[in-house]
Every structure is written in C-alpha cells, then in structure tokens.
C-alpha cells in the first residue's frame, strides 16, 4: 500500500496461506491509494501483481434543502443530494 500521496510503499505481511482478503485501516478520506500483492514463500518470491488504485471514501457533500411550502403550523422541506451524489 502506498501512503495515499504516491509516496513510499508499506508492507503488510499476511502469514495465513489460506487468506485471500485483507483490510487496510487508517486511510484518509478522499485520497487515492495504490495496492499491489506479492507472494513470498520458502521457494521464492513472485512478481508483484498489477497495481490497483482506489479512492478512500470521503464524507459526502451536503444536500441542498429548500422550503416547498409553509403555514403558521407546519413547514414542508425538500432536498437533493450534494454535487457528488451523496
């Protein structure tokens, strides 16, 4: 995994040879992270997988709210998602 800023790669070691999933914690929202996998065994080291790039989820943009009608005893609101669809 890189640091989200195209910086240095970190190594996360998995010793369970049957494990096929991994969760990376401590990411910063909205940054692009690059991942690659390499197998190291008692007989050698594989080439690295192709790099996969993903964006860490970010807080959604706020919705737009409006008053659709009101009276002296109630108010009706409507809203639409923010610019990112959130």
Q: Can I get a quick summary?
A:
Helices cover 0% and strands 29% of the residues.
- Topology pattern, helix = H, strand = E: EEEEEE
Care to count the β-strands? 6
Largest sheet: 2 strands, antiparallel
Helix amount: under 10%
| Count of alpha/pi helices | 0
Structural class: mainly beta
Report the mean per-residue pLDDT as an integer: 88
Please characterize this protein's 3D structure.
Strand 5 (64-70) and strand 6 form a beta hairpin. 0% of the residues lie in helices and 29% in strands. It contains no helices and six strands. The mean pLDDT is 88. Strands 1-4 form a two-stranded antiparallel sheet. A two-stranded antiparallel ribbon has the order 2-3. The protein is mainly beta.
What's the SSE blueprint?
Elements: E1 32-35, E2 40-41, E3 44-45, E4 52-55, E5 64-70, E6 75-80
Antiparallel strand pairs: 1-4, 2-3, 5-6
Features:
6 strands, mainly beta, 86 residues, rod-shaped, single chain
């Amino acid at each position: 995994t890189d640091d989200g800023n195209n910086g240095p790669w970190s190594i996360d070691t998995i010793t369970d040879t049957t494990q096929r999933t991994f969760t990376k914690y401590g990411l910063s929202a909205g940054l692009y992270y690059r991942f690659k996998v390499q197998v190291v065994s008692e007989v050698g080291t594989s080439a690295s997988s192709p790099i996969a790039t993903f964006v860490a989820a970010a807080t959604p943009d706020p919705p737009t709210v409006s008053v659709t009608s009101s009276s002296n005893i109630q108010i009706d609101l409507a809203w639409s998602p923010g610019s990112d669809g959130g």
